[in-house]
Amino acid sequence: MAPRRRCPVCGSRQWHKEPSSGLITCNEGHVLQSYRNETREVTELGPHTLRKRTLKSNRKRKEKQSNADPKLYHGERARYHYFQCLQLILRMQVAALTRLWELPPEFEMVCRDIWTLHLELLPQPPPAEPLEAMHGEGDKKQTEQSSQVQVDTQPADISDGEEPEEEAKDSSDESSSSESDEDEDDAELAALMRENSSSSSSSDEDIEKQPKKNVSKKGVQGIRSSRRYDSPASNISVLVLACWTLRLPVIYMDFVRLIEAYELPYLDPVRLLPTSLAQHLTKHTAHALSPHHSPKPVYLHIQTSRLARLMYSTYEISTPEMNAPPILWRAVRGLRGTPTLYMLAKTLARVLSIPLTLHRSLASGFKRTEQGEHGWHRYDNAVPEVSLAATVIIVMKMVYGLDGEVRHPQEKDDPARTLPLLSDLLACIKDLDERSKMDEDAIFSAKSPMSVVDLSEPMLDKYLDFCERALLVREDKRTERHVMADFFPLHPAPAPPASKAGSESEPLRRLTAPEISLDAESQLLLSPAESYSIYNTQDILGTLPEQLELVIKRASSWAGLDEEYLCGVVERFERRLVRWWDGVKKKEREETSLSEVQ
């Protein structure tokens, strides 16, 4: 440090050293003369000097260890595996229906063809079979060895600056255009191999690293709407369409009842899958395969009608009409009707042009209506059995009124004389409702508030059998041979006797018909189809008469739909009937006027 002496120029004692030049200057900037600053450059360190020891190794960087289960499938391979499970569940469902309903072997063939068309018509068809499943174990090992050799032969990463300078210079001198082309080809092959390997199995960390796509609300809704078509309910729609193809008189509630009774595999089907398939399911895939509730008939009808419409528009495969006569008779018996009521309902259904197809565009000779006639074909896409039940209700309203007023036929040839009394008919409907509440399916359902303490010994045994069927897994689930024996048998076993059918197959009860009386009091009463009332379903404050409400409630429980939906179909068909009757009277007036002119 400079001595504390005065500056010969200004006399200041404040000195400082400039860092750039190393000169000593005072506050005024006068340079101190006769001052020498010497520095020593040390080129070699002594033996006692501390120095940091560095070691160089050619070890490769360790890849991050993934905690994901290698048995679980993700991505496209998981989706392909999901459809494999759906197909096996469909096999189980076909085998169950064939056993319960004694269906012919052609039913399985029809289901197989419709299932193939269903996969082709999905908004997002199933992906191709994974590469690992296409090759054998030898090919897989060879692919892994080739990929390992390729990784070993690739040059090490020189971005870390850990290679010697001589090796870096040699590698830069020996590089050429041909080697750069080979490196590009190797990079492309490595990228392709990474894509193929990522399709087999990927970890959760890799999924999180992928950039999130900006999906709008419409895109999310489109994804959700496309996913519902490959849900487990699509298997039931395939079964329904196969039954329609074979002209089987089934309704949607037949499948729903079997599902709720665990006779048809649908609820919690993962326990029925073999271990070789179930071990690859993630929790999300298993959740998608296991619905919590049985499907509603309206949802099944939407799925089935869409599939039938796409089959016709894409491949021109037409689905036959519903086998209406047996189903109409089932609807009549569901309301405790008679053959006379069946004939009247059949005539009215022909007048109203009740649609008998899954979709109105599949009807032969269908013509698009004008804008002012849009109400005529409304509810043409309704559930077919609901349309038939609504027709039966309209006939009952025309005959009995169901509004608290007594109707009495005045003419001798009136078909209403062959129908039973309204009081007896309503008593039978009430008795049927009471017995349906004590039915085995109703007691064991999830909606029933029953207690095991209240069950009798025979009913308790049935409940234990139901629990065993609904909760326990198969005895030979871990064996692979039972899959081939159950779903691909060499000689089909004889089918057991069919299960009990619905209440509509019970024998007819003898009901009393109204007596023929032509006195003055009977002539003052209303006749059938006189003073007909149409109730507006949009009137939320209105109430239905007690008699009509009882019939509506019974019909809705038979069809498995809400009472509001059934009332809407009844109202629409009633207004269609009024328009038809106005057209008939108008045509009669025109013919009368033409005859008078002539």
Task: Put the structure in a nutshell.
With 598 residues, this protein is mostly helical.
Q: Please, could you describe this protein's structure?
A:
With 598 residues, the chain is mainly alpha-helical. Among the domains are: 1-33, no CATH class; 70-135 and 224-320, no CATH class; 324-363 and 375-454 and 512-598, no CATH class. It contains 23 helices and two strands. It has helices at 75-101, 106-120, 131-134, 137-153, 165-174, 177-200, 204-209, 217-227, 233-245, 252-260, 275-278, 283-289, 297-315, 324-334, 339-352, 384-400, 422-437, 440-444, 457-471, 481-487, 520-524, 546-559, 563-597; strands at 15-17, 24-26. A two-stranded antiparallel ribbon has the order 1-2. Strand 1 and strand 2 form a beta hairpin. Helix 16 packs across helix 23. It is elongated, with a radius of gyration of 41 Å. 22% of the residues are buried. Residues 136-182, 195-215, 370-375 and 492-502 have low confidence and may be disordered.
Question: How are the secondary structure elements laid out?
Answer:
Blueprint: E1 15-17, E2 24-26, H1 75-101, H2 106-120, H3 131-134, H4 137-153, H5 165-174, H6 177-200, H7 204-209, H8 217-227, H9 233-245, H10 252-260, H11 275-278, H12 283-289, H13 297-315, H14 324-334, H15 339-352, H16 384-400, H17 422-437, H18 440-444, H19 457-471, H20 481-487, H21 520-524, H22 546-559, H23 563-597
Helix pairs in contact: 1-2, 2-9, 9-13, 14-15, 14-16, 15-16, 16-22, 16-23, 17-22
